[in-house]
Amino acid sequence: MVGSTAVTDVITYNASQLGAIATTTLPAGQKFALILSNASDISGLTDDDLNDNAYTFAAGFSAAGNGHVESTNSGTSWQPQGGTPAFRLTVSPIVPSVSITCTPSELLAVAGQVSTCTVTIDTPSTTDTPINLNLPPANPGYTTTCTSPLVIPANATQASCTITAVANTTPNAPDVIAAISVAPPTTADAYTIEGDAAQITIRSGDVVVPPVATPTPVPTLGAVGLVSLVSVMGLMGLRRSRKSA
User: Fold this and answer.
1) Which of 96, 102, 117, 227 is such that its CA lies 20 to 30 A from the CA of 244?
2) Which of 23-27, 39-43, 124-128 shows the lowest per-residue confidence on average (mean pLDDT)?
3) For 75, which DSSP code?
């Protein structure tokens, strides 16, 4: 960490800078030294009241002993000092941004036309991330698998759902529009919303799919009709045989 001679200076690191710093996991039950350095200026620290006092650092750090070392010449020499230096560290969480896109953005009102809507988070989480959505209203022109919340699995950056066109059977029907967007999170600062709502247009006006005709049942003869038919065929056969004789 870059230090400063002014105790009131605030030093800020952005996400890119923090991402370039190697990380490690500190084992529990051990003592560690927190070192602040500056390659171009004096790195002086002092305790909060200039007396020999012991302090405990937050976030799991503890004082290794009553005292610290200090350099006033950029690390050329170090002098032991009494007391534990006061140090304040504020960590602001990185809030991920979430967007949604649907591809393709236009469908024909025929069976099998599907648009895939993908919700993307720019920073994956180690746990499942529920994303609230403003869902398209119910409409006979399409069906959807999209639900709210849509969960992005742990360590993933995307989750998807679909909007499927329904075949049009009405001549000159108007086009149907399905809009879907990311809604604010249930938990404050869980994510921010990036980009606009996605919109899928289902073209119906030039597409007419006739309904499937219902098959007409073939009439059948009852038992009496069947006996009559056999009798008639028998008489015709007998008559033909007599003529032949």
Assistant:
1) 227
2) 39-43
3) T
Which long-range contacts does 111-115 make (Cβ < 8 Å, 24+ apart)? 111/165, 111/166, 111/167, 111/209, 113/164, 113/165, 113/202, 114/162, 114/163, 114/164, 114/165, 115/162, 115/163, 115/164, 115/200
Q: Tell me: the pLDDT tens digits for 220-245?
A: 556 656 556 556 566 565 555 555 55
Q: Are residues 81 and 106 in the same domain?
A: no
What pTM did the predictor assign?
0.54
Task: Tell me the residue ranges of DSSP E strands in the chain.
Answer: 68-70, 79-81, 97-103, 106-108, 114-121, 129-131, 133-134, 142-144, 150-152, 158-165, 176-182, 192-193, 198-203
Please check whether residue 102 lies inside any domain of the structure: yes
Q: What is the pLDDT of residue 156?
A: 95
Cβ proximity of 76 and 46 under 8 Å = no
Q: Reduced to 3 states, what is the DSSP secondary structure of residue 67? A: coil
- The answer to whether 77 and 90 have CB atoms below 8 angstroms apart is no
pLDDT 10s digits, 73-124: 656 676 766 665 555 555 566 789 999 999 999 999 998 899 999 999 998 8
Residue 64 has pLDDT above 50, yes or no: no
Dihedral of alpha carbons 104, 163, 113, 201, sign: negative
> What separation, in Å, do the N-terminal and C-terminal C-alpha atoms of the chain show?
124
Q: How far apart are CA 232 and CA 234, in angstroms?
A: 5
Domain final residue, candidates 92, 123, 155: 92
- Cα distance between residue 142 and residue 175, in whole Å: 11
CB neighbour list of residue 32: distance below 8 Å, 6 or more residues apart: 26, 61, 64
